[in-house]
Amino acid sequence: MERREGAGRLYVVGTPIGNLGDITPRAAQAFRAADAVCCEDTRVTAKLLAHLEISRPLVRCDENVMAARAPQLVDRLLAGETLAFASDAGMPGVSDPGQVLVDAARSAGVDVEVVPGPSACVTALVASGIPCEHFFFEGFLPRRPGERERRLRELSGVPGALLFYESPHRVEATLEAIARVFPAREAALCRELTKLHEEVLRDAAPALLERVRERGEMRGEMVVVVAPPAPGELPGAAFAAPSAEDAAAALERDIACGLAEGESAGALAKRLAQKYSRRKREVYALVLEAQEQDGDA
Q: In CA terms, which of 18, 94, 111, 127 is 20 to 30 Å from 118?
């Protein structure tokens, strides 16, 4: 899409994942240049702007409202305004709703400028010491135990380290699933990254699970890193690229299977979009179409 004359600019601003000392001068400059700052949680971003001694109107843009708000924000950009988008921590668009706004802005011909900043997944990968020549970032695993373990088995053929975001109250369940699916692999639990109580626990997956159980409740946002498979662990054709026809048929089967198991349309679309490297909204449309067909049957 060619740039629209008279359009403003969208700054996508990376912010600290814990230590405010990681904010960059360029990030501060982007916030000062913006007519308004879009963010997940206005309270979190207000504290960051106060630290920078910057005052700007804040627009809530979390995952619950982003789809409805993005067209309004694009209209403001097309009218010549400059907007900045910041997630609560780290790089926007990585497991947060920023990607929706970036996609909409680019489709409308608005200039998008990314201001790089810290990323929890990459920081954890490096801090873990696990080999990282190749890696796959999954984000959050499904909440339901069966879906969670199934997704891990789907990822077992990835020839690289696996990275997952997790919350404190679900981390033990996630490590249980990892220990079942990858009992021979090392794993690391990284929490409170860049903060005073930063901690990295690394062990064989079953042993790491026991250490976490013994510790009891732990706080802070967490990243789990799973080591790459051993050479003999990968099947010979694990990563053979399917034809377009095969991929479409496989996606259709996975949609039908997920709906039959009661998986929600949103969760199913997110999981399969990641699996097939498709846009979530495209997969979501296919899921809704399959639901309608089931209803008519």
A: 111
